[in-house]
Structure formats: structure tokens, C-alpha cells
Fold this sequence. Notes:
Mean pLDDT: 93
Number of helices: 8
Strand content: 25-35%
Strand order of the largest sheet: 1-2-3-4-5-6-8-7
CATH architecture: 3-Layer(aba) Sandwich
Low-confidence stretches: none
Amino acid sequence: MTDSNRLEVGLPIGDEVDASPAKRPARTTLPGRLGRLTPLDPSAHGDALFEAMGGDAGNKLWAYLFEGPFPDRAAFDEHLRRIAASEDPLFFSIVDQTSGRAVGYASYMRIDPAHRVIEVGSILFTPLLQRTPLATEAMYLMARYVFDVLGYRRYEWKCNALNAPSRKAALRLGFTFEGIFRQHMIVKGRNRDTAWFSILDSEWPTRKANFEHWLDSSNFVPDGQQKVALTALTAGTHIPKSV
Length: 243
């Protein structure tokens, strides 16, 4: 039965959309006010990343990731070389503007230009990056590139359903919770139920305004404390005057 025949008998087949493909993300630099994302370079970023994730606190960073922790520097360097060469996932280092050192990394993954769907994942925030404005700016820069430059219509965030901080972060950043995929994966010999979140292109203008209002220097007092929380902007309990 053709689409036209389906329309004649009244069967729903979905709204017509622009079917042109999105662009693939490039190995490029995404500059911000607090830092920048740049293609992961083991020789340039390895020392800073290894130092920043050291100790017991660093080992905990790998609890919900597909790999790690690593027994020694050589194993970590091999990990960086492998992921830096990957096209999907495509990894970027998060570099602090003040120190010039890498403090984490993140990737675009499950890249599907035909359907204009892309995911942010394999996120490693070292203790130097966690709970900082730069961490939020990095996620904003990645989302802005996806929607404003590459033309995707769906941006996904997925995490282990047991990873409460990641689920909380997704909601704070404006992703919508869509449900749990039960027994979705086996990771490090353990079951993983996966929580799914997304932002759609139709939602991006509001999310973008929230990010930009929160990240503006006027939203922070001299000691660095925020005046308005991003969660308040996302929930709509505080409406920026410019919106």
C-alpha cells in the first residue's frame, strides 16, 4: 500500500518533515567564555586528564562508563589513543580557559545524519570540572553545535538507570525523560537498564535561552555563586526578562 493510499483510507502515517540529512560533526573547536571543546589529543591532553582524575575519587568516575578505571598510565594512554581515533563516538576534550588544561571529555555518538538524531555520551568530568559553570557551558556548546550548525532534530542523553547524578544532570540541562529500556546492555559483566532523555529541535530555542541566561556573567556574584539556578529556568519557575 502506498503512502497516498494510506492517506485515502485515513491511516495515520506521521507529519511530513524535511527529510534532508544533517551534517556529521567535524573535528573542530567549539569556543566558549569559560573554556572550549577541542578534538581529543592524547599528547596534548593526556597529562592533565590523568592528573585531574587521580586517586580514589578518580576511580569512581568510571563506575558507569564502558571502560576504566585503568591500572596504570600506560593503560590510560592506550585508552586515549583509541578513543581519539574514533569517528563514532567522536571525542572532544573540555579545556579550561584559565589554566589551558583539559579537565574532562565528552563525545557525540550513535550519529545518524539520515534521521537527524545524535547522542551526547561517554562523558568524563574530572573533579576539577564537576559542579562548575564550565561543565554546563561545555554541554551548551555541544548542544548548540548540534542544533544550530549541524541541523539535527533530536539530541539524546542516555545513562545507566542507577546513575542518579547523570539522570539529575539531564533534567537540569533541559532533557526530557522518556523512559527506561530494561536489560538494555551488559556493561563490565553487569546488567544495565538505560534511562533515555532527549531534546528536540522545536524545544531548543527555549533551552538555548535558558543556557545563555544562566551562563551570562551577570548571573553570578563576585564569589562565583549563581543568582538564578538553571533548574529554575528549565522548570519555568524563573522567566528571563529577555524571553
